[in-house]
Design a protein that fits this description.
This protein has 480 residues and is of the alpha+beta class. The protein contains 19 helices and seven strands. The strands form two sheets. The protein has a five-stranded mixed β-sheet. Strands 6-7 form a two-stranded antiparallel sheet. Helix 12 (293-313) crosses helix 14 (337-358), helix 14 packs antiparallel against helix 15 and helix 14 runs antiparallel to helix 17.
Length: 480
């Protein structure tokens, strides 16, 4: 049964108090986001029961209705029915109320800064990784079409890859400055300072550099993340100060100049070295699990495979992702974090597919198939999470069992992941190409195990007879 976007829009409009209670409407990837006049006029339970709605919640002054990838069409119908103002997509934090700065709030803002900066670079990271993947596919590791010493191989494997990752501080300087409101070009300049040829040369010779007469050990910050990420907030504060106090007639020239004069020594003497050391600590902490031997690694992978999607729902996943991304950028691969979480992801695909096979209600069956398609093709698991796993809690058994077993099998087979900004749909397989044919085959085996086991568990044990009966009764009511 096709999804009736107009009916969803009409039902939501009625449940939130009508057009007079809506100031504006917009959407993100999967949610209808409504700015309300009166929160108390909203019947949240009624919204959650609407066919096609996966969930609903308040976030600041907004009421968010979780719908799925068809949300733009629902928004079109909603605006047409209500006549309310349609807003362009806004920054996630713009609708947040002013809150007291607690450790939790500060931590969330730091994570938002880090993730918001890194997310902007996903296309760049994917392109850079795929350049090397292309060379591996055509090179002696796989198809053997081009030789490892050929100019074409070296161009893709080395030149284009280095153009992406060597200059990462410049790209991140731009993205981070844009994220927090500093001048992006000054962010780029700050990143350029960290990888200036004179500093790189001195670092290679294990020499020193002079910063305003202060001699410090030279270090290479090429292909690094944390040094520039620590520096940009300082750049923002310094630039804001000079913008406020510099006379307008002098501001165009001297605000950027004075900003860099103050920021550069702070970066080179304090923040960049601290960032480098912090990166080493993160890498050691992330991979210290290997000191417990193979069993320790497999235990961690089993936990990630089983519970990762719950971390995502709870918003607890970003620290782990950021740590793993930093590690991939630094050394070029990840032997277990993304390997395990990809098995967790495919387990959710399997749960949705198992739901499709088991449910008899035609509309729910159609929705479950839609969840599978949106996850595998679009890389969006939120509809499956809220449409199946959060509604029918026993289906989580499929996610737990399938995700953990697939992750452990992948760990035993030695699967390795290579792209810091890889895809989250079926194209995820490209993230394993640099490891060669065997790595690809083993990755497919691990994820296929997660998918199949999750689907079988959901089909056999995911629903109670009462739940299935209620769905059948709803189906029968639709036909009356």
């Amino acid at each position: 049964m096709a999804v009736d976007n107009k009916r969803i829009a009409a039902d939501v409009l009625a449940a939130v108090g009508g057009a007079e209670n809506i100031q504006a409407a917009t959407n993100c990837m999967t949610r209808l986001r409504l700015t309300l006049v009166n929160k108390d006029a909203v019947d949240v339970d009624a919204v959650k029961k609407i066919k096609g709605v996966l969930g609903a919640q308040f976030s600041g002054s907004q009421f968010q209705v979780i719908i799925g990838q068809n949300v733009p069409k629902v928004l079109d119908e909603f605006v047409a029915l209500s006549g309310v103002k349609r807003e362009a997509p806004v920054d996630e934090n713009l609708d947040a109320p002013k809150v007291k700065l607690t450790p939790a709030v500060v931590g969330n803002r730091i994570l938002d800064y880090l993730s918001g900066s890194m997310t902007q670079l996903i296309p760049l990271l994917m392109a850079g990784g795929l350049f090397r993947t292309f060379a591996v596919v055509l090179g002696p590791q796989m198809c053997n079409v081009i030789a490892a010493d050929s100019e074409t191989y070296q161009f893709f494997y080395t030149t284009l890859y280095e153009a992406t990752f060597y200059f990462l501080p410049i790209y991140l300087g731009y993205a981070a400055a844009k994220k927090i409101g500093a001048s992006p070009v000054l962010g780029m300049l700050t990143g350029g300072v960290l990888i200036a040829p004179s500093i790189i040369t001195a670092a290679a010779a294990k020499g020193t550099i002079s910063v305003y007469g202060i001699s410090i050990a030279a270090a290479s910050y090429a292909q690094s993340v944390l040094p520039i990420m620590l520096t940009i907030p300082v750049l923002y504060v310094v630039e804001k100060f000079f913008k406020k106090h510099m006379p307008d007639v002098l501001s165009t020239v001297f605000t950027p100049f004075c900003t860099m004069i103050v920021t550069v020594p702070i970066a080179l003497i304090v923040l960049a070295p601290v960032g480098n050391e912090l990166g080493n600590v993160i890498a050691n902490a992330l991979f210290s699990v290997s000191s417990f031997g193979k069993i320790g690694v497999l235990i961690v992978m089993a936990i990630l495979g089983a519970f990762w999607q719950l971390f995502v729902v709870a918003g607890m996943h970003m620290p782990v992702i950021l740590l793993a991304q930093v590690q991939i950028i630094a050394v070029g691969y990840d032997p277990f974090v993304f390997v395990a979480t990809n098995c967790a992801m495919t387990a959710v695909w399997g749960c949705a597919f198992g739901s499709f096979l088991r449910i008899r209600n035609k509309e729910e069956k159609s929705l479950s198939l839609g969840y599978v398609v949106s996850a595998i093709a679009g890389g969006v698991t939120e509809p499956a999470l809220f449409g199946v796993l959060m509604r029918f809690r026993r289906t989580m058994l499929g996610m737990f069992i399938g995700g953990s077993i697939g992750a452990v099998v992948s760990g035993i087979l030695g699967v390795t992941y290579y792209l810091a900004g890889g895809a989250s749909n079926f194209m995820v397989i490209l993230n394993y190409f640099q490891g060669g044919q065997q790595n690809i085959i083993f990755a497919v085996i691990g994820m296929a195990i997660s998918f199949v086991i999750a689907a079988v568990v959901v089909f056999l044990f995911g629903f109670t007879e009462k739940e299935l009966k209620e769905l059948d009764e709803e189906d029968a009511a639709e036909l009356i």
